C-alpha cells in the first residue's frame, strides 16, 4: 500500500494556509478544514529587485553582511548600561540648546505634529516659563523661535511625546563596555501627564516638584550608591513578569529597593523622603524611562557597523514611524504611524480617541525586550489586551526576524531562552513579519493624556525603504 | 465505511498507558507507540474498604460531604488576612508559656527530633539566655523542663524547624472575614539561620538585633500604616513570578515598597532605617513567613466543618509528616518525612547532607499556592530544580485533587486560571496523586543550616490514614 493510497483511504484532515477559497470549497463538501490566515509577503517590483541585489552583494562579498551583523549583535548584547548621575538637560545632553525642545521619533515640524505632541510642547513652554498662558505658548511654538529636535539626535530617548526641555532633569546612563552615554527624563506616572500631551496646572506643578524635590533627592542617592546597574535590574525583572516596556512593576520595585536606603541616608527631611518614596511606589512605570535608556545605550554602541542590516532605532512621533539601521548611518526611513489595532482603553475612551503610535519607547523592542519579550510578561495582557498564549506566540515569532538571542534577558517559560534580539531589516522584508510593539496610547487631542494601551506592528514600509537604501549603498 | 473500518485502514498510532508490555510488543511489530508511565493507585484492603464505606456515606446521606467541602472551600477562599501588629510571642500567641518552645510540624519529643530541629532548639535556649553554653543548653533540652509544642496548636506557623521562643517577636495576622488570628516570626534570611538548625554566635546576634531593632521599627511602621493587606500582596506576587513558598522576591518587594515610607516617618535614626531597609532588601524570603501566616489564617477559618474531607494542615517536623482534616478536628495523621528526591544543593553539599522534609511552610500548598501555584513561578526551577514545563504540569495535576480554584490567586500563563485550592483527602487517595510541595532543605546535622531547595510529594500514607479515620467517624 503506497503512502499516497494510505492518505486517500484515511479521513481527510486539511490545514489550509493562505487563500480561503480552497478551505471554503472543502468545507462545502463536508471536510474539516483548519484555516491559517497568512499571505506571502507581497513584494513590489522595487522590493523584489532589492532582494535580488541583496543576494548579489552576499555572493560578491563586497561587504560581509553576516559578519557585520554578528559584530552589531555582539555590541548590542555586551553593553553594560549603568545609571551614573542626574543633571539638567541643558547641562548634560549633547547639542541641547536653551531654546530647544527634544521630541520623540523622527524629525517633525510644528505644523505636522500630532495632538499629544503639540500638547506636550505647549506644556513644556509653560513649564519653562517661556509663556504665561496657552495662547502665548501656541504663538511661540508656531513662531519658529523654538528649535525642535528628535531625542535620538542627542543620545536621548523619551516615552510618548518624549518632550525634553532645557531645565528638565535627566538621567545619565553610561554603557560601561563601550563608553557611550544615553539620556532620558523621569517618568511622571500614568493618565494626565506631559508625555501624553496633557499640560494642565497639575501637570506643570508635578513637573516643578520633580525638578525641585525629586531630582535632587534621587541625584544624591544615585551618587551615594556609586551608580545603579540597570542591566542587572532588567534581567531580574524579566524573571518577574516584566517585559520592560508596558510592564515595569518588578523593575520599579527592584530599583525602589536599591534607592530607598540610599535616599534615607542622603536626605534628612523625612517628609521629603516619604513623599519621594511614595511617588516612586505610586508609579509602576517609573523604571520605563530607564529601561528605554538602557536600550538606547546598548543600541548606540552598535551604530555605524559597515554592512550591518541591524535596526538600531525604531521610534514614533505620533505622525511618522521611523527607523535607523546600523549600516546606513543617521538616515531615517519613515512611514505613517498607525493607531494600534488591538488595545484596551481606559473607561470613557475608545479607539476614536486614540492618537497613532507615538514615542521612543519602541527602542525597547529594538533592543530585544518590550514586545519582543512579552512572553515573559503574561499578566501584561490585562493592560494591553490579548491572551498569554498570544503573547508567547508573538515572542516566538520575533525569533524569525532577529539576529540572535540575548542570554542575559531570558523568558523563563521558554525554558530561559534568551530574548529575540537585533532586528534584521532583510529578514523582516523577506519573511513579511513586522516587529511587534506593545505600547501606551495617548489621546489624539492635545491636553488630555493617556487613554489606553495596546499592541501594534511596525509598518513594513520603513523596512522596505531601508532595504532598498541598503542595496543602493552597498551594490 | 464504518468508523471501525476507517480506524483499521488508517495508520495505527498508539498511546499506551500503564503496562509497558503492550507498548513493547507493538513496537516490535513496527508501530509507533507513545508510552505514558502511569500505574493505578495500589490500594491495600483497608483503603479499598474505606473507599467503599465512603461511597456508602455519600449514598446514605448521613452527612453531606459535598456541601461540607463547599463550605470549607468557601471559607478558605473568602478569607481576608491582614497584618495588624507585632508583639512578643509570650504576649500574643495563645497558650504560649515562659518555658515553652514552639516547633514546626506535628508533635515530637526531644529524643525523636531531627538534627536541624535540635539545633534550632539549642539556639533558642541560648537566645533566651536559659543556658550559657551549648552543653548546658543540651542538658536543659533533655531535662523535660522545657515544654515543646507544635506551632499549629497555637494558631502559629514557622518555616523549617519553626522554633518560636517566648521573647521572639511575632507578626499578628487577622482574618478580617472570620476574625480568627494567626502568628509567625520574622524571616532571618538564607544559609546559617536558626530555622535551618544553626545556632552559632552570628545567628544568635542576628536574632537579638531583630528583637531589639528590627521588631520595634517594623512594629511602628505597621501601626502607622494601619495594617497591611496580605491577600492583595500575594495576589500581585503571583502575577510577578512568585509562588509564595520558595520564591517570594516579588511579594517581599511589594511589602518593602509599602513599609519603606512608613519606616521613614516613624523611625528618626537614619542609620537604623538604612540598616532595616537593607536587611529586608537583602532577604528575598522576608515575605515567606507572612505568606505562611496568610495561609494559616485562611485555613483556620475552614477547620471543623462537619463532614469535610478538606485538608487544613500539612506540616513536617523533619521526622514526621502530618496532616489535619477539616471534618476530623485536631487529630494528626502522620507518616515518616522523606528527603526531597529532586533538589538543587548549595555548593559543597549533596543529598547525603539533607534532612528529611521539614517545616510548617507546606501550609502554603495546603492553602492553594506554593507548589500548587508553581506554574506562576517558572524562574523558581533555578532554585529548586526541574523545568518550567514540569512546573506547569505540576500545577495542572493539582487541579485533580483540589475542591476548587481560588480566583484571587491566579496563574497568568494558564490564562489567569485560579490556583488549585483545597486538598480533598478522598481525591488524593482515590486518584493516587499526592500533593506537591516545593521546599527548602536543611542539613541533617544540628548547627549547620540550609543546604538547598527541592521538590517533594507528600506521603500518601497520611491521606490513607485520614480517609480511614473519616469513614470510621462518619459511617
TrEMBL record, chains A, B:
Q: Which Gene3D superfamilies match?
A: conserved protein of unknown function from Enterococcus faecalis V583, Enterococcus faecalis V583 domain, NAD(P)-binding Rossmann-like Domain, v583 domain like
InterPro entries in UniProt: AllG-like, OXTCase_su_AllG_h-dom
Q: Which domain of life is it from?
A: Bacteria
Can you say what this protein is called? DUF1116 domain-containing protein
Amino acid at each position: 500500500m503506497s503512502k499516497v493510497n494510505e492518505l486517500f483511504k484515511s479521513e481527510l484532515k486539511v490545514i489550509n494556509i493562505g487563500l480561503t477559497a480552497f478551505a471554503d470549497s472543502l468545507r462545502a463538501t463536508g471536510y474539516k478544514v483548519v484555516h491559517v490566515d497568512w499571505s506571502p509577503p507581497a513584494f513590489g517590483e522595487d522590493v523584489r529587485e532589492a532582494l535580488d541585489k541583496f543576494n548579489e552583494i552576499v555572493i560578491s562579498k563586497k561587504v560581509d553582511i553576516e559578519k557585520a551583523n554578528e559584530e552589531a549583535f555582539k555590541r548590542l548584547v555586551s553593553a553594560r548600561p549603568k545609571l551614573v548621575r542626574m543633571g539638567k538637560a541643558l547641562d548634560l545632553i549633547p547639542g541641547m540648546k536653551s531654546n530647544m525642545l527634544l521630541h520623540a521619533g523622527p524629525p517633525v515640524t510644528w505644523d505636522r505634529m500630532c495632538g499629544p505632541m503639540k500638547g506636550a510642547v505647549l506644556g513644556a513652554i509653560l513649564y519653562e516659563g517661556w509663556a504665561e498662558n496657552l495662547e502665548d505658548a501656541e504663538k511661540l511654538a508656531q513662531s519658529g523661535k523654538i528649535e525642535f529636535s528628535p531625542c535620538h539626535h542627542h543620545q536621548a530617548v523619551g516615552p510618548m511625546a518624549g518632550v525634553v526641555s532645557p531645565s528638565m532633569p535627566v538621567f545619565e546612563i553610561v554603557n560601561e563596555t563601550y563608553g557611550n552615554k544615553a539620556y532620558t527624563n523621569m517618568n511622571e506616572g500614568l493618565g494626565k501627564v506631559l508625555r501624553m500631551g496633557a499640560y494642565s496646572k497639575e501637570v506643570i506643578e508635578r513637573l516643578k516638584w520633580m525638578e525641585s524635590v525629586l531630582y535632587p533627592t534621587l541625584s544624591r542617592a544615585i551618587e551615594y550608591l556609586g551608580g545603579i546597574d540597570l542591566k542587572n535590574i532588567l534581567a531580574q525583572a524579566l524573571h518577574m513578569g516584566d517585559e520592560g516596556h508596558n510592564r515595569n512593576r518588578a523593575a520599579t520595585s527592584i530599583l525602589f529597593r536599591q534607592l530607598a536606603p540610599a535616599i534615607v541616608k542622603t536626605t534628612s527631611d523625612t517628609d521629603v523622603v516619604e513623599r519621594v518614596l511614595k511617588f516612586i511606589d505610586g508609579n509602576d512605570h517609573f523604571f520605563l524611562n530607564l529601561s528605554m535608556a538602557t536600550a538606547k545605550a546598548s543600541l548606540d554602541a552598535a551604530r555605524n557597523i559597515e554592512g550591518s542590516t541591524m535596526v538600531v532605532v525604531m521610534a514614533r512621533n505620533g505622525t511618522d514611524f521611523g527607523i535607523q539601521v546600523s549600516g546606513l548611518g543617521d538616515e531615517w526611513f519613515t512611514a505613517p504611524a498607525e493607531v494600534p489595532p488591538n488595545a484596551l482603553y481606559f473607561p470613557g475612551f475608545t479607539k476614536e480617541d486614540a492618537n497613532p503610535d507615538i514615542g521612543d519607547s519602541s527602542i525597547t523592542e529594538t533592543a530585544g525586550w518590550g514586545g519582543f519579550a512579552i512572553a515573559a510578561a503574561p499578566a501584561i495582557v490585562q493592560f494591553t489586551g490579548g491572551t498569554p498564549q498570544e503573547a508567547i506566540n508573538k515572542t516566538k515569532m520575533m525569533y524569525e526576524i532577529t539576529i540572535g538571542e540575548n542570554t542575559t534577558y531570558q523568558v523563563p517559560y521558554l525554558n530561559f531562552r534568551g530574548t529575540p534580539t537585533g532586528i534584521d531589516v532583510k529578514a523582516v522584508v523577506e519573511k513579511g513579519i513586522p516587529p511587534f510593539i506593545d505600547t501606551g496610547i495617548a489621546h489624539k487631542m492635545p491636553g488630555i493624556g493617556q487613554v489606553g494601551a495596546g499592541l501594534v506592528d511596525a509598518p513594513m514600509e520603513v523596512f522596505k525603504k531601508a532595504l532598498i537604501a541598503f542595496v543602493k549603498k552597498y551594490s
